[in-house]
Amino acid sequence: MMKWLVVLSALVAFSECLVRTPLIKGKTAREDLQEKGLWEKYRKEHPYNPMAKFIQTGTESMTNDADLAYYGVISIGTPPQSFSVIFDTGSSNLWIPSVYCSSQACENHKKFNPQQSSTFKWGNQPLSIQYGTGSMTGYLASDTVQVGGISIANQVFGISQTEAAFMASMKADGILGLAFQSIASDNVVPVFDNMIQQNLVSQPLFSVYLSSNAQQGSEVIFGGYDSSHYTGQISWIPLTSATYWQIKMDSVTINGQTVACSGGCQAIIDTGTSQIVGPNTDISNMNSWVGASANQYGEATVNCQSIQSMPDVTFTLNGKAFTVPASAYVSQSNYGCSTGFGQGGSNLWILGDVFIREYYAVFDAPSKYIGLAKSV
């Protein structure tokens, strides 16, 4: 009996070491703008360029993705000031708006006030973050950052002084990057690296679960993963580059036919991109295979009635097949249906939220592996 109690208490202790940060699946910028009748104007002024944040210029880059829906709340400072952020595995810096910013985007988001925090310290470097359509400028600083109940001391982060116009329509206040330090602007140590270095997590892993329809239930877990989020085994795939969470993709097939990524390609698992993005010709081919036709904005629209009869698309990663059904890759709204396959104009593929909703993702930084398993 004593032995079982020891095992039980160890299990309880272990489950408590998982640091859960709930993600809210909220309204997207597109939905909000459509309701206000402003979407057509917005999309003309701020064309979506999903590859913008993957062009390495020495400055951190982001993109104006109007379909991002998942946000988590963190706090910064003593006493804590709260902000909603996108947990972005496709970038590496943490930044939020500040009281020193008068851009439109800062006016309708929460702003950090350094003077109200007793643990705040200014850095000595400016920060510039490039977007597909504009940029954010500001300063580096450090303070205590709380994520899911974990307090990270002396975390360096950016506070904005100006923000690109499209950010006024974004739902989150800021971004918390979860990629590697090698691509961090100003070589800042990312939040998760500090969690590991400050011994705040039981294992050097984090995992992301994105729910399909429910507003609640999505979460980022720091320090491990939760077996109730997936079924079957986790497939561990080695990274080809520890910059983004980049892996080798062998092919994209439909009904056994290779339709894209012929001969292999590179793909990034990115929570900060809503779609599955690839080279223009490959994406066009995929969209025509599933029966989609492009509208004037290049979006691949489909008849909402035909989703049941559309084929699965299979992404083979490191020899293992990951299949995404039409129910997952077609998004439905009051304005019609379109596929979640977007043109990126680059050879790099991005497996964004459309893919991650289907496959629970476990990110192992020290071993440089990504684990993927079928989401429950």
UniProtKB/TrEMBL annotation:
SUPFAM superfamilies: Acid proteases. InterPro entries: Aspartic_peptidase_A1, Aspartic_peptidase_AS, Aspartic_peptidase_N, PEPTIDASE_A1, Peptidase_aspartic_dom_sf. Keywords: Aspartyl protease, Digestion, Disulfide bond, Hydrolase, Protease, Signal. Disulfide bonds join 101-106, 261-265, 304-337. PROSITE patterns: ASP_PROTEASE, PEPTIDASE_A1. PANTHER family: BETA-SITE APP-CLEAVING ENZYME, ISOFORM A-RELATED, PEPSIN A-3-RELATED. This is pepsin A. It comes from Pleuronectes platessa (European plaice).
